[in-house]
């Protein structure tokens, strides 16, 4: 049997193929014992059988019968991955908590490849961290306000608190938040400033907690 498909011969020779179709072909060849052989030939060089096969393949595109061929594992995996990510995005867009709305203000959509390892970036993104406004929600502090008197949330310490001025970042306009955060992910200098800010706010919160416990 002659074929111009070198990839088909390689698939049949492979011991690691997961394709049900290829494994069926291998089984048929094995059952035929020495009655069937495979050889590779160049395409479009005038070999009658090969030219006829090409003609039949072209004819099948326009007038052949529709048949169902089992999808390979990789195709099914791709479909399931897309389905899961789509469902994840549906949940993402419908999650109307304070933190959900805040995160969506900086990130367009979920992604299987998007992952943040830096805890300080997560503090900022979620608003959950060493901030009086967050700790007050769980009654660890009596007030949501910073030592300076303003509401002590993540944005306050990053952009405006006089006590963290040396670490301040320039606050983006609302329409530029997503681009700003995307740039922040790869801006090591800015991330270092953010780390300094939140270490300082953590010290403030520790001080406020100790004062509360002593009273």
From TrEMBL:
PROSITE patterns: RNASE_H_1. It comes from the Eukaryota. Residues 1-62 form the RNase H type-1 domain. One of its GO terms (molecular function) is RNA-DNA hybrid ribonuclease activity. InterPro entries: RNaseH-like_sf, RNaseH_domain, RNaseH_sf. SUPFAM superfamilies: Ribonuclease H-like (SSF53098). Gene3D superfamilies: Ribonuclease H-like superfamily/Ribonuclease H (3.30.420.10). This is RNase H type-1 domain-containing protein.
């Amino acid at each position: 049997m002659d074929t111009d498909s070198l990839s088909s011969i390689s698939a049949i020779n492979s011991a690691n193929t997961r394709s049900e179709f290829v494994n069926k072909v291998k089984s048929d060849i094995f059952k035929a014992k020495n009655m069937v052989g495979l050889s590779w030939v160049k395409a479009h060089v005038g070999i009658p059988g090969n030219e006829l096969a090409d003609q039949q393949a072209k004819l099948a595109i326009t007038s052949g019968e529709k048949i169902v061929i089992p999808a390979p594992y990789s195709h099914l995996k791709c479909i399931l991955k897309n389905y899961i990510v789509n469902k994840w995005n549906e949940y993402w867009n419908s999650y109307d908590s304070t933190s959900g709305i805040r995160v969506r203000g900086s990130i367009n959509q979920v992604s299987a490849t998007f992952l943040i390892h830096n805890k300080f970036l997560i503090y900022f993104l979620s608003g959950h961290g060493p901030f009086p406004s967050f700790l007050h929600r769980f009654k660890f502090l009596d007030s949501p306000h910073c030592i300076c008197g303003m509401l002590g949330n993540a944005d306050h310490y990053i952009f405006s608190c006089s006590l963290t001025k040396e670490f301040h970042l320039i606050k983006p306009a609302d329409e530029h938040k997503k681009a700003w955060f995307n740039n922040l992910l790869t801006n090591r200098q800015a991330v270092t400033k953010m780390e300094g800010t939140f270490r300082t706010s953590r010290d403030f919160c520790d001080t406020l907690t100790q004062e509360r416990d002593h009273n």
